[in-house]
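Reviewers of the previous submission asked for a worked example of the structure-prediction workflow described in the proposal, so we include one complete record here. The input consisted solely of the amino acid sequence. No template or homolog information was supplied to the procedure at any stage.
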Amino acid sequence: MEPRQLGEFLRWKPIYPTPFISGGILYPRNRLMLYGRYKALKSMMFLALGRALACGQSWMGFDTPKEGIRVLYLQLEIPELLLHKRMARMELGWSATGSKRMGEMLRENFYVWTEPYMKLDHEPGIAALRQRIEAIRPAAILIDPVYKIISGNILDPNHIRQFCDNIDVLLGDYELSVLLAHHARKSAISEDSSYDLGSDDMLGAAVFSYWADTVIKIAKTGEKNNQIGLQLNFDVIRHAEEEIEPKAIVFDREDLMFREGGQLVSIAR
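From that input alone, the workflow returned the following structure tokens.
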């Protein structure tokens, strides 16, 4: 793009993009990171987010395009057979809470891809991803987890920058968004502590926090019987016009569904 005088720039009448997730959480060509500690159910929440995008269902009270969007879910950690078992069980819960039309949209728009050895900080991995993008034409790519797609030192900002630059080139070439599931770093600070590190609590170099348009933390707050209390913290929302308060979520192990709001369950002592 060439430099433009301010007057010319302001006379420009662009067509603003329709958000993929309302509230400024996700637009086309954005980068979203969802992170949390071990067993914080980030992968399950990630799948629920992908499902909402694919079938046009609201996600945790935020709107998604009613017509749904095409989603490519790349899983690098869970073996394919076990992923199938998990998703088959989740689909039963999804079917019970959604319409027949939503179920049809989900099966049509949601693509599952398992590839345990892909590295996206090197050209062969990016080339393989490009092939899938050309074939499927997704509007959103969900990648789970981040540490599996980086061959370099995740603590080294130079290594992380190479990965980020590769993703940014993809965003420039294709009108899609990239969503990443990531881990929190190990910390001596208790999860229950009021001391909040924000997005700096993510594993790896601080480049991730500077680079992502949206960073959401999922944290366990309690557990009782078959229910797990969780909280979503919106650490970084660059394109939000208003601050987004934390959201209380309950996950039910019986049907593998997340439900927004209500009183958080307490930890059984």
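The longest helix spans residues 80-97. We consider this example representative of the routine output the project will generate in years two and three.
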